[in-house]
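Complex 343.
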Amino acid sequence: MSRKDALVGLTDEDLTSTVAAAGGKPFQARQLAHWIYKHGAAEFDDCRNLPNRLLAALGERHTVRSSHVTHVDASDDGTRKLLIELADGETIETVIIPDGTRTTLCVSTQVGCPVGCVFCASGLLGVRRNLTAGEIIEQVLHARDRLDEPLTNLVVMGIGEPLLNLASLVPALARIHDRDGVDMGARRITVSTSGYPERMRELAKTEHAYNLAVSLHAADDDLRAQLVPNAKALVADIVAAAREYFEQKGREVTFEVVLLDGVNDRERDADVLARSIQGFPSTVNLIPWNPVDEIEGCERPLPESVDRFAEELRRRGANVTVRRQRGADRSAACGQLRILAER
Ligand code: SAH
Ligand code: SF4
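Predicted structure with iron/sulfur cluster bound:
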């Protein structure tokens, strides 16, 4: 049997023509979108003010969503990691991170990752495919199903390199941002990239001003090439593209640095980093490395080394924050997300 197509992720235009093909009117397409994105309807039966005949006709060729949650790992600190199975049997992970009045979701954009950063679990098996816009949006819908409180923030920092999948990312974020979609403000959405200057410029051309985080890790080109093997751009080009993003969008850029003991946390690393972003109103977010079983040769620095590195940067004029570790007892912390090897 051929697989039915999901409605989540369709543009308004495509949803309208799909509803028309099932005998419905444009206003019913809008009602359907309301059920799917506002009320989180996962089945046609959940859409209560639409005629049964129309719902039955839609159900012959379509499903509402394409993916489902197969497992939830709850961490002692309240973080929850959802394992999601896609229609073709691939799996991804998405993480809910509650923090006081704020609840953040960390979404994936690819099945695996082609960048292969030496410290990260997500790229261990390479990349298998890009997610569709619908599969990105559905991570938000699945998370919301499980929350009593509102989902306030979104970070595109799960599995995959978001800017290598702009074709799905841009429409997915538009739907998540849209008032008639999930209705999350652009200021509450952050896209993280391992540094593709041309694609950062493309993201800057999109309508909305999302926050941008750039995973720099090292400001020395040789060291960066060792840590981020498949992202070939030079640090100066990456910083220049980040600055253009800031100038065009008016959104402050964050530079992320995963700190590896003795590798990129030395005084000279702070020196090169501070110099490369000097005069650029931005924040450096230090992320002490989270352990990954298969990865050897990386060590998490001691808290005092992290503090020392932060101080060295601050002395050189940088704004610095240190990311708190969340969900590590369930392998749900930054860089610990992965796809399943066996299928
Ligand atoms: N591919 C994008 C977004 C996903 S990774 C990117 O690289 O920016 C999100 C963040 O988690 C990145 O800053 C990444 O460097 C960081 N990260 C990856 N592995 C990690 C690990 N083992 N410990 C801590 N942070 C890690
Ligand atoms: Fe991919 Fe980001 Fe992990 Fe690097 S850190 S392998 S770019 S997910």
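The pocket of S-adenosyl-L-homocysteine (ligand 1) is lined by residues 117, 119-120, 157, 161, 192-194, 215, 256, 258, 287, 289-290, 292, 334-335 (CB under 6 Å).
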